[in-house]
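User: Can you predict the 3D structure for this chain?
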Amino acid sequence: MPSRLPVCLVALLVTVSGGCGLLERGPEAEVGDCLDMTALDGEVVTQIPTVDCAQEHNGQVAATFEMPDGAYPGEKQIQEAIEDRCLTGSESFVGTGGADSTLQLSDLSPTEDSWAGGDRRVLCLVYMQDGATTETFEGSGLLGQEPAVEVGDCVEISALQGEEINDVPTVDCAQEHDGQVAVSHQMPDGDYPSEQEWQDVIGDMCVSGFEAFVGTAYEDSTLEIYDLSPTEDSWDAGDRQVLCLVYLEDDTTTQSFEDSGL
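Assistant: Here is the predicted structure, written as structure tokens:
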């Protein structure tokens, strides 16, 4: 059986430049408010239209802070403050460290004109680059997001290479594939398991689940076992899902492995 492959289910690409804007007046949005990032297009933003977080959205205010009084510091100094304060605030809000999140980071900061009018407030935003959600990002560990796969889903094992996996791309089982999810298991809460504990749990669970799914014992089968389990970081963010996959080592198929007896 292949060695355990940790799943990195969570990556905050800290790109404070590129998705950022300037505010013509102090923002009225508060930490936790949800928004549609497409409504913030443009170099200067005059208002921040928020939405109910139960409605579809792709962004959320993760932190705010006030710049100190004084002469307008210039964009470079503001960005330096943003890179420090927004990163820390967003990690605290989401519940996952910067390199371990699937979200992006952006900001809204005062223009020189709004600064002259007394505006000192900066908004730190986290957002999904693609797609939308009806859930809050607060404490989501989204970072800690489990693979959106279920038992019976077919996959290409070659797409799962690497030490850390951000997602598990599935394919229609009628298309060419070499792997399939045989077991999905939620580990109990507690301390992160040791390497030996992982091997014991996965060895027992994946082997017994293999026979139940395929219809033949692992030692009598032409199929192999592949597993995906949480990293220590994703475990800390709440991830408990373990996946056991069965796969063909040197071939593909357009059939399901379930009850195949292979």
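Residues 1-27, 143-147 have pLDDT under 50 and may be disordered. The two ends are 16 Å apart (CA to CA).
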